C-alpha cells in the first residue's frame, strides 16, 4: 500500500514521529505503517531551537540516516520549506527525494523572534507553484500542508481554518495538518468541510483513535510529544542520580 493510499483507509494512519535511527527502528519493529520526522525533536537533538534554525544540510544528513535504516514510508517535516521562494523549496524537496521520501509537511507560519501566521492566499500560491513543479519533475510526494491557526489561537480560528483548507486544497495540497485541533465539534466541522484527509496531532485532550475514526480523521501524528516526554524522563532520572548519589534510579522500572 502506497503512502497516499494509507490516507484513504477507514481507520486513521497512526504516524510515528521519529528523530533518529534508533527511534525509527523501534517504530518499525512495533508495527507502525509509516513514520514522519519532527523538526522540533531533530532541532533539539542537534542543539537548535525549532523554526529552521538548523542548516538544511544538517536536516538532510539526519533524513539520509533514517531513510537508510527503514523500509517504512517516510514523511519529512520541512517546516516552511527552508525558503520563501517556490523554486528553492522544490529544489530542497528534490534533494530529500534522493533518499526516497514519501511525503513532506509544509507549514503556513514562520519563526523570527516569534511564530507568526503568513497570509493564506500568498501561501496557497507557494503551494500551487511547488505542486506544479513537482508534477513537472514526475515526483509523487504527498504534500501535507500544516496550518497553524490553532497553534497560534488566531481570532475566529474555526472559520479561518476552513478558509485556509479551501485555499490549500485548490492550490494542490494532498492533506491538511491542523496541530492543536482537539475539540470534537471543531474536528467534525472541519472534516465535513474538507475534501482532503485531515491530520491531527497528539494533545492531552485529543479523543481516542476510535472516536477520531468516527469523526473522519485520516491521519494522527505525535509531533515532538514523544521526544519531549523522553527528555523529561531523562532529566528526572539524572536528577535522581545526583540527588541520591546512586545509579538505582536508572534501573528502577527499567525494561533494559
Automatic annotation (TrEMBL):
Pfam families: PEP_mutase. PANTHER family: CARBOXYPHOSPHONOENOLPYRUVATE PHOSPHONOMUTASE-LIKE PROTEIN (AFU_ORTHOLOGUE AFUA_5G07230), PHOSPHOENOLPYRUVATE CARBOXYLASE. This is Carboxyvinyl-carboxyphosphonate phosphorylmutase. GO terms for molecular function: catalytic activity. It comes from Snodgrassella alvi. InterPro entries: ICL/PEPM, Pyrv/PenolPyrv_kinase-like_dom, Pyrv_kinase-like_dom_sf.
